[in-house]
User: Fold this.
Amino acid sequence: MSTTTDGRAPEVAPAPKKRGLVDWLVQRLGLTATMEDQYNRIVPKHATNYIYCFGGVAFVLFIMLAITGILLAVYYEPTPDTAYQSVLNISTHVQFGWWIRSIHRWSAGGMVLLVFIHMLRVFFTGAYKAPRELNWLTGVLLFLITLGFGFTGYLLPWDQKAYWATKVGTDIAGSVPFLGHFLLVTLRGGEQISAATLGRFYDLHVLVLPAIIVALLLGHFWMIRRHGISGRL
Amino acid sequence: MTRKGFLKWLIAGFGVVSLAGVLYPITRFLKPPPAVSGAIGQVANVGALSTFPAGQLTPVAINGQPAAVQNLNGKYAVYSLICTHLGCVVGVSGDSFSCPCHGSTFSATGTVTHGPATLPLPTYHSQTQNGSLLVGPIDLSGAKYPAWYTGEFGA
Assistant:
């Protein structure tokens, strides 16, 4: 974060003799103070520990999921007639398709796991306490969004397992008191699982949830910078 | 070369190799794959009729799948060279077929002459046109054939 808290525009440095593209950009954009602030942050000794890495690893998995997901969307066709065949095509005919799809699939499972372990770490080190409550809350939302990605992505291969898992999942949503039927019909796009369901889940998986998760991640990381790493136990 | 300079080059080298390791599969991934075998309406021209000698089986690839063209005095048939037993590639010897994996043999008309295979080799729809042999989808209507002929290898 910039140290100019009095509303002044950050000072554009008078370009001292430095080399490299990064320095060039930093000077053009007047980010010298910001970058120095980043460099001068010291990771507390108690936090140089593997249990403090889970959030970062989850983020790396998210980046990998984003890249492989964009690639899979090149060949995936979200219609009931072609979805399964297009997934089969990716896995058996597209070069490295099996590789990209496997990375996406395993990273997806891994991300759910690591987000949860990260949550446990934050919980047991008491890192959710004041003033970090808001970061805990965005974290909870991020966890739910991650599960949402898993739930919507599971339907996309459009095989038997996907169909029945989604049937059960949306049935559970339908069991919510009062709102249940509305949720079920909204998720399925009708009373039954159909082409509308596949379209809705695909929309959620590649447009809605990514937009939400990116916004929440930015908030999550900004607050980490704002608060610093929590104290030791 | 200084130690610092060496390490700099080493790190840069690792960086380039890692980047190439990511970009190479992605570029290959984006290249459209060859047409899928047996897709409905997918017709392949397997070559001029003169390239298929009479009384012989000539191995060809149909959309990447092994097959053999049979020329019985101007009557052409195209057999899949994937064994009906467990999906091995069947060998061609003279005018009959034999599978190297488990010893199944098939007659010149594709019927089983020796087990363990029980189903005859499936044929492709084919026709001659302007001196060329055109091959369409595989004909799996004769029996309940295993899934590998349609490109499905289990869930």
Notes: The longest strand of chain B covers residues 65-72. Strands of chain B lie at 44-48, 57-62, 65-72, 75-80, 91-93, 96-98, 105-106, 112-114, 123-129, 132-139. The mean pLDDT of chain B is 81. The helical segments of chain B are 3-30.
